[in-house]
Amino acid sequence: MPRARVLKLAFTGTAAGLFSGLFGVGGGTVIVPLLVLWLGYDERTATGTSLSAIVVIAAMATITQGAFGNVELAKGLLVGLPAVGGVLLGTWAQQRVRTETISLLFALLLLAVAIDLVLS
Amino acid sequence: MIIAIVMGAAAGVVSGLLGVGGGILFVPALTLALSLSQVTAEATSLLAIIPVALVGAARQHRYGNVEVRDGVALGALSAVGVLAGVGLANLLPERALKLSFAGLMLIVAGQFLRRYWRARRATDEYSSRP
Known about the structure:
The complex is a heterodimer. Chain A is mainly α. Chain A is built from 5 helices and no strands. In chain A, α1 (about 5-25) runs antiparallel to α2 and α2 runs antiparallel to α3. In chain A, about 55% of the residues are buried. Chain B is mostly helical. Chain B is about 85% helix and about 0% strand. In chain B, α1 (about 1-20) packs antiparallel against α2. The termini of chain B are far apart. Chains A and B meet through α1, α2, α3, α4 and α5 of A and α1, α2, α3, α4 and α5 of B.
């Protein structure tokens, strides 16, 4: 792998963690834009790769938060299990829309995140 | 409880479509519908994200949309960032940080809109050729 690419990936990962640690706003809103706009990923590969990174990030963070006794297992599963059905639908649908539609929806998501941050 | 389940399912759809964890919907589902405190909800949301991201990444892998090595490197490196972020959060004024980040998100949203419009225009030009 070229050195510049390794450095960009390192920066992206660190930035994603930084904002997660700062605001609890997850890695995906940082990882997907950097992969698409800076590393030249297409939208689908960026979102797929972002999900694989989030597995690692969420697992590490859950262990840490669990050690502080902040994780409510039953309520987490109550929202998490229906979400597994949702993610099957979401990934299925994503293969069937135009690539640029993913960009449009992502812009709307970022807008929602920005509003959420200002109001919180 | 039904609201929480519906919001959870919606979080999954957003996660699959856009490659995010879904915390933007999990956290309000846990605070508003299941009356957890903000801190507990944010922590519990992380637990909910694990199966969603795992199943989503597995599906995307089957579609050929995951650079596994890059993804694992991103995840592992984020640990360094998280530590720095938690440290900085205690040092810097939170409100100013949030507003700056929100501003940054708006700029990035604009970049994605430009990408959308450019692609649409390219498609239109192509299809309107004689």
